[in-house]
Amino acid sequence: MDEQYDAVVIGMGPGGEVAASQLIQAGKRVAVVERELIGGECGYWACIPSKTLLRPLEAAAGAARAAGLERPEPDWPGMRSYRDTMIRHLDDSKQVEGYRSQGAAVFKGTARFVGRDPWVVEVGEHRLSAADVVVATGTTPSRPPIEGLEEVELWTNREATTVEDIPDRAVVVGGSAVGVEMGQFLARVGCSVTLVQRGPSLMDREDPRVGELTAELLRGDGIDVRTGAEPRRAYRRGRDSVLELHDGSEAVGDVVLLATGRRPRLEDLELDAVGVRTAAAGLEVDERCRAAPGLWAVGDVTGVALFTHVAKYQGGVVAANILGGDRTAEYTGVPRVVFADPEIAAVGLTAEGARERGLDPVSAEVDLTAGLARPWTYETSPRGRVGVVADRASRTLVGAWAVAPLAGEWIHTAALAIREGIGVDRLRDGIFQFPTYSEGYTLAVNELDL
Ligand SMILES: Cc1cc2nc3c(=O)[nH]c(=O)nc-3n(C[C@H](O)[C@H](O)[C@H](O)COP(=O)(O)OP(=O)(O)OC[C@H]3O[C@@H](n4cnc5c(N)ncnc54)[C@H](O)[C@@H]3O)c2cc1C
Ligand SMILES: NC(=O)c1ccc[n+]([C@@H]2O[C@H](COP(=O)([O-])OP(=O)(O)OC[C@H]3O[C@@H](n4cnc5c(N)ncnc54)[C@H](O)[C@@H]3O)[C@@H](O)[C@H]2O)c1
């Protein structure tokens, strides 16, 4: 006999949690299914541990850059212990209890689809039936086709974020968000890091200037940054894990960390068996986050934008639609922050992306140390650059980036301007608090040759 629910949520990372919580609060009978830990990749092996580990190192470096302070010594056992607290010692029993106490049914196991009209999901011996099912199963690290990879000491984000003992040497493959954050973390806790990026630029979805500035900041931490370098073979040599690069050179470490992107976790769901097609990029959804009648998807598995804030946003969109509303998702102005020191933040389009969309982009970049007081009051060796992209025809901001302290906070001014279509002339008339990094927007938009 099938167990009947109003909705079943599969995968309890941030996307699934938001959808489930809003449905439960609205009085729906909800079953949630999670095969690992409620909180998902984000809570245990991604956002939370990585940001927790980076922060003390940023604070130590920040103290060394502030006038009259000495650099405090990072205490790895102390950092590790707080990381373990933040990832709940990989124990979600309180979360399971929390959902049960709110009236939800919680199933621990792998879900797969076995029926349609209504949807039927099997978890172990249970068959859960519902008119609405939300797929929120996230992504798993993608593995580049490098011969011999299985022979070396291979890490993904999971080993990196839960590391107990810092290796002496690491090779990081991939130079975007995961590679940059984890590379800087490892370098700052005393590991000798080589970072291998296949294209000409780090952060290759961003403006090329962001890539250059990122390479500069990583080199400042002693990281051996190798761009235009693609590993073609991996092998062991004694205790060394060796990557042979396409030009015949080698990158050698005790571990090799894969930071080469993600692929959607779809295979175990057996969606094909119920007539739902999936793509390599994920489970395709419409603007209401619907994949088929009564079948919804949120978060990384949709392939829209692999961020927790997007997963949470989509969770809210889906809950509203299941509850009878008609809410569409709108992704203009989603911020993208890499929590390096200094922070690397971007939003909207790059100039190249704007051109691809048929716009006529105009760009400007400013050195914040040249025109602002804040970088100088903040630290003795001031840093910071901001770039803006505007559309000549509409005279609106369509993109922005910043590589500067606290950029992950103040990028939201640009995010809001882009999302709301605020004109460049209005921004030029803006009044920003003195002395802040945000004043940089005034400098940058004044530089635009519109
Ligand atoms: C190292 C790292 C750092 C990151 N830092 C940030 C950051 O600072 N900010 C940010 O916005 N994003 C960050 N991200 C991205 C962020 O982690 C993801 O965008 C976010 O986790 C997506 O949430 P989700 O709910 O889609 O999926 P997930 O968090 O992946 O959760 C999916 C859940 O589904 C479960 N599941 C999968 N298949 C099944 C099944 N068949 N049955 C039952 N359960 C299943 C999984 O066990 C998992 O718990 C980071 C990623 C990495 C790798
Ligand atoms: N702070 C944050 O918000 C944050 C932090 C970490 C991760 N994330 C998200 O998680 C997702 C995964 O991050 P990621 O950095 O693993 O993936 P990514 O897809 O963003 O970047 C992967 C990088 O690896 C490079 N690469 C791929 N194959 C390679 C190879 N064989 N050799 C050398 N380089 C190779 C690519 O050129 C690319 O720059 C991203 O979508 C990211 O947005 C977000």
TrEMBL record:
InterPro entries: FAD/NAD-bd_sf (IPR036188), FAD/NAD-binding_dom (IPR023753), FAD/NAD-linked_Rdtase_dimer_sf (IPR016156), Pyr_nuc-diS_OxRdtase (IPR001100), Pyr_nucl-diS_OxRdtase_dimer (IPR004099)
GO MF term list: oxidoreductase activity
Domain (FAD/NAD(P)-binding): residue spans on this chain: 5-315
Pyridine nucleotide-disulphide oxidoreductase dimerisation domain span: 334-443
Enzyme Commission numbers on file: 1.-.-.-
Keywords annotated in UniProt: FAD, Flavoprotein, Oxidoreductase
Superkingdom of the source species: Bacteria
Name of the top EC class for this enzyme: oxidoreductase
UniProt-listed SUPFAM superfamilies: FAD/NAD(P)-binding domain (SSF51905), FAD/NAD-linked reductases, dimerisation (C-terminal) domain (SSF55424)
Cofactors named for this entry: FAD
Pfam families according to UniProt: Pyr_redox_2, Pyr_redox_dim
Similarity field: Belongs to the class-I pyridine nucleotide-disulfide oxidoreductase family.
Protein name per its UniProtKB record: NAD(P)/FAD-dependent oxidoreductase
Organism: Streptomonospora wellingtoniae
Lineage: Bacteria, Bacillati, Actinomycetota, Actinomycetes, Streptosporangiales
